[in-house]
Design goal:
Radius of gyration: 28 Å
Helix content: 40-55%
Distance between the termini: 54 Å
Number of strands: 16
Strand content: 15-25%
CATH architecture of one domain: 3-Layer(aba) Sandwich
CATH superfamily of one domain: Anticodon-binding domain
Shape: elongated
Oligomer: single chain
Length: 467
């Protein structure tokens, strides 16, 4: 009986060449865009000390850390040790550290903050970096959410100017437009404004985190669902009504800001937040970003605990797949390692969700599924040398060329090229060799032509659209 091949762990995936070719096109676009905006590459280790990661993402984030057992310690021994420590009522973090002193990175922002704090003397501020590496979260896998996935981050450390946020949002608009997304919105808010609203509505301190979490679910559960969750927190009907009034605000950024000013009142933090958000929107208009692509959205919260200022998320009208990019200002995170605050803004592109959305919107149709551009055939043993010589010429000219592995008739070689998605087949048989010619067959157009042997490279480049 045939065996069932093993699958990768749940929440992780294998990528075949056709998948990676499309993924790498997106990665390439991101790298090229980041570089044009002055961002430089950076990489960090896959594992970090747990002390570096813990406490930076809130309770939920700490629960999702993939922890690494200490060297030489087996799982059963670790479980016995944790059970014994639990009886002593140790904190969850202390329990975790008792058997794991390292964890897989949860995101790229906290490792970046560690690098800046440790290598500050080697960095010229303001420092712009981009980073494209996998991260790991012990999450519940679902559509658009994985346990292992790539993040693509951009951060700028060392500036308090709101033009930093605006330029990053400009870059996000450019990326999504280049990828073919027609209907997307960059939702913008401010953590300081949310704090001021909590004060203005007089939400008890111990319930604010849960109240903000409920507000952040507006897109998922609707206004009625948010109202119900706020009610379950024990908030009075008056407080719930005022919060729902805020969530219902819409219009241009200026109109939303005008409606918020009375609610913020004399709160200095709220006034500063409205001023900073206004500066971002003014800069977006100055930088030529379409007003159709951004909005002032008071329901936006973003769950990570380290944000301190302007926050933003990019969502598409369809499919309903969640945020495709997000981030904001975090002026205190690096200070936890450095001993003093250092302003920073960062955004992360959810590449996995972006690719899922592109597939559903058919934006990947017609994309290449292989890196090979030309297949050189093998017909007879006496032409093998000529075929490899021709392949060498094509490669030296920059044409990515593969030679079929076995001497066979034409049909299986064409079938192979079709299945793999190779656009051009270079046919060199004994008849062609005798005439001093080569046949070039374009599988995309279903056409072929015979050319002189010394014209092959130039004509092949032209047929591939490279000259």
């Amino acid at each position: 009986m045939a065996k069932t091949p093993p699958l990768p762990p749940k929440g992780t995936r294998d990528f075949l060449p056709r998948d990676l070719v499309r993924r790498n096109r997106v990665f390439g676009l991101l790298r090229e865009t980041f570089a044009r905006y002055g961002f430089e590459p950076l990489e960090t280790p896959a594992v970090e000390h747990t002390a570096v990661l813990e406490g930076k993402y809130g309770e939920e984030g700490d629960r999702l850390l993939f922890r690494v057992l200490k060297r030489g310690q087996d799982l059963e021994a670790a479980e016995r040790e944790v059970a014994a420590l639990a009886e002593e009522e140790r904190t969850p973090a202390a329990l975790a550290r008792s058997f794991a002193d390292m964890a897989m990175r949860y995101d790229l922002t906290v490792p970046f903050a560690r690098v800046v704090a440790a290598r500050l003397a080697e960095i010229a501020l303001p420092f712009r970096r981009y980073q494209m590496q996998p991260v790991w979260r012990a999450d519940r896998p679902q559509r658009g959410r994985y346990r292992e996935f790539y993040q693509c981050d951009v951060d700028c450390v060392g500036s308090t100017s709101m033009t930093v946020e605006a330029e990053m949002l400009t870059m996000i608009e450019e990326v999504f437009t280049a990828l073919g997304f027609a209907e997307f919105t960059m939702r913008v808010n401010h953590r300081g404004l949310l704090d001021a609203l909590m004060d203005g509505v007089d939400v008890p301190t111990e319930r604010r985190s849960a109240a903000l979490g409920a507000m952040d679910k507006l897109d998922k559960i609707g206004a009625d669902g948010v109202r119900e969750e706020l009610g379950k927190l024990g908030l009075t009907d008056t407080r719930v009504d005022r919060l729902m009034e805020v969530l219902g605000l819409s219009g241009t950024p200026g109109e939303v800001a005008g409606a918020l000013r009375p609610l913020v009142g004399e709160d200095a933090g709220g006034q500063a937040a409205l001023r900073e958000v206004g500066e971002v929107f003014d800069a977006l208009a100055m930088m030529g970003v379409s007003a159709d692509h951004y909005a002032f959205d008071v329901s936006l919260v973003r769950g990570l605990a380290y944000y301190t200022g302007v926050i933003a998320e990019t969502v598409v009208t369809r499919p309903k797949i969640g945020s495709l990019a997000g981030g904001g200002r975090y002026d205190r995170l690096i200070g936890q390692y450095l001993g003093r605050e250092l302003p920073c803004v960062g955004f992360s592109f959810g590449v996995e969700r972006m690719l899922d959305a592109m597939a559903e919107l058919d934006l990947l149709a017609g994309e290449a599924t292989t890196t090979t551009q030309a297949l050189v055939t093998l017909f007879a043993r006496e032409t093998v040398g000529a075929s490899f010589a021709l392949a060498g010429e094509l490669r030296r000219a920059g044409v990515r060329t593969e030679v079929y592995t076995d001497v066979k008739e034409l049909r299986p070689q064409l079938a192979f090229a079709n299945k793999k998605g190779i656009p051009l087949v270079v046919i060199l048989g004994t008849d062609e060799a005798a005439r001093g010619e080569v046949t070039l067959r374009d599988l995309r157009a279903g056409q072929q032509r015979s050319v002189r042997r010394d014209e092959v490279v130039v004509v092949a480049q032209a047929m591939l659209g490279e000259s």
